[in-house]
Specification:
This is Alpha/beta fold hydrolase. This protein has nine helices and eight strands. It is an alpha/beta fold. An eight-stranded mixed β-sheet has the order 1-2-4-3-5-6-7-8, sandwiched between helices. α3 packs antiparallel against α4 and α4 (about 190-200) crosses α5 (about 225-235).
């Protein structure tokens, strides 16, 4: 993991984030024309290395062909976050950040560190897909293609409610939260555990737990409780509570357009060649809604991936899901 030092970074809110940092990884080599760049932002609570498994020779994200950049985002350490920013902006005093701030910082990384001014593809899923849409609308002169997968330009109402009631409120309602001014993140582990349990209930499709299927067994667990503990608590308990709250609030507030614009008007301004993909059974970003987004983007194509894992398919939990998502990425790059 590398760190790009942004200096004193002016946020969309008007505040300044001092000594701002953006973590990132790269794979492959930048060609002489500097036109083989792929940007692959990460998602809520997931450091960039979580995406490493999607990169490999002979696959669509082939480092022998492309220069692949995996940038982090604000609120997610080791990028600037409440957990690693010194006073007076530490913990609950961390300034309000936005998806737009993330993308502006990522654009700075490409321009200042690599002198890159053309991006062949921006792809991502979930909160990463929100960043994809922001890239297309904010830097349309730079981005040639986008592939938002299992995501949206702004979270739909159900997903905004999910971010608040499943992710944010279990943390802020924890008796040890203390307005975010806790001495140790482990003091709020009860709240993080409740985030894990709520995620286990709402992120996979309901059919994931059907007795006739018991899809969770395919992940190596011998009980539902074992799955919740091993998969979901394993993901959420190591997180810093303030970091999670900042990321959830940032995602809920995301809006890539101007005040007064409709989402249809906003998406009508996308000029990048677009492939929108959705996952069957995904409650966070349902296929019907993703199909609607595609219909509002000039020339966009829509693809639905049939998966028993729903939103969890983006973790690459089955060979079939990996192949289907690779096919979408290949189409976005070459179709």
């Amino acid at each position: 993991m590398e760190i790009f030092e942004l200096g004193d970074f002016q946020l969309i809110s008007g505040a300044t984030l001092p000594a701002a940092r953006l973590a990132y990884q790269t794979f492959g080599e930048l060609n002489a024309a500097k036109d083989n760049v792929i940007v692959f932002p990460t998602f809520l609570g997931a450091p960039a290395e979580v995406l490493n498994g999607w990169i490999g020779e002979g696959r669509p994200l082939d480092p022998s062909r492309y220069f692949i950049v995996l940038p982090g985002h604000f609120g997610l350490a080791p990028s600037s976050a409440p957990s690693n920013t010194p006073a007076p902006f530490a913990g609950p005093a961390f300034p309000e950040v936005s998806i737009a701030d993330d993308v502006i910082a990522q654009r700075r990384l490409l321009a200042d560190r690599f002198d890159v001014h053309e991006v062949r593809l921006v792809l991502g899923w979930s909160i990463g897909a929100i960043q994809v849409y922001e890239w297309a609308l904010r830097f349309g002169d730079v981005v040639r293609r986008i592939a938002p997968i299992a995501g949206a330009p702004t979270p739909p109402p159900w997903t905004k409610l999910w971010l608040k009631t499943v992710v944010e409120e279990p943390i802020t309602a924890d008796p040890h939260w203390n307005g975010g001014d806790y001495q140790d993140a482990s003091a709020v582990s009860g709240g993080l555990a409740r985030v894990a349990h709520g995620s286990a209930l709402t992120a996979p499709p309901r059919s994931f737990y059907y007795g006739s299927a018991e899809v969770w067994r395919t992940l190596g667990f011998d009980s539902v409780d074992g799955f919740v503990q091993g998969f979901w608590e394993g993901f959420w308990l190591p997180q810093d509570p303030n970091d999670v709250v900042v990321q959830a609030r940032k995602a809920r507030a995301s809006w890539p357009g101007a005040d007064g614009e409709t989402l249809q008007e906003v998406l009508g301004r996308v000029t990048a060649k677009t492939t929108v993909a959705a996952l069957t059974g995904d409650s966070l970003f349902p296929p019907a809604e993703c199909r609607q987004y595609a219909s509002w983007i000039p020339g966009a194509q829509f693809r639905e991936i049939d998966s028993v894992y729903g939103h969890l398919a983006t973790f690459g939990l089955s060979e079939g899901d990996v192949k289907a998502i690779d096919d979408v990425i290949r189409h976005a790059l070459e179709g």
